[in-house]
Write a structure and sequence with these properties.
2 helices; extended; single chain; 5-stranded antiparallel beta sheet; mainly beta; 4-stranded antiparallel beta sheet; 199 residues; 9 strands
Length: 199
Amino acid sequence: MRRFILPSVILLIAVQMSWAQPIDAGPNLNVCPGTPISLSAVINPGMPAAGPETQLPNIMSCDDCSSPVVNIGFPFTFYGNSYTQCVVTSNGYITFNLASANGYSPWSISSGIPNGSLPTNAIMAPWHDINPALTGANDIIRYQTFGTAPNRVFIVEYLDVGMFSCGVSFCYGAQIKLFEGTNVIETHIANKPLCASWN
């Protein structure tokens, strides 16, 4: 019985002496329906642009195509190889295969990756058959490098791009971010609805 009591007493003393970390989220606020309120926020201005925003009109006006070679703005290591350039496609991925510049961007997802007939040396965000050439779309495909060395970020953004076979009522939105120095890759999906009739 003593073996149980002594550890229990020590545990109780330790619990009584521990300090919780308080979190102050500000005063509570109850809002009744129809009651107007004013909200404000302090916004971090973020990183300064290290280069101009560049839209890609050549892939905005066609389906299943690739951009010219694009400068990343810093060396980026991908699977042990260092790259300073990439190619942006109209189907939601970038590739370090510079031979695909100004060419065809495969869309048919008929098997799993890796597969010789599918894009290689690529970062997909996610890969899907999207069609920026659809009329009526307010879509943008653009890229830009932000920050200062050695902490720059290269961002490719797909904004409100219509999905092939589902039109502009089903729009795709995503970002691919490449981080200088750490070689971290982030993909952010803003909108990827199910286009059940296609790919």
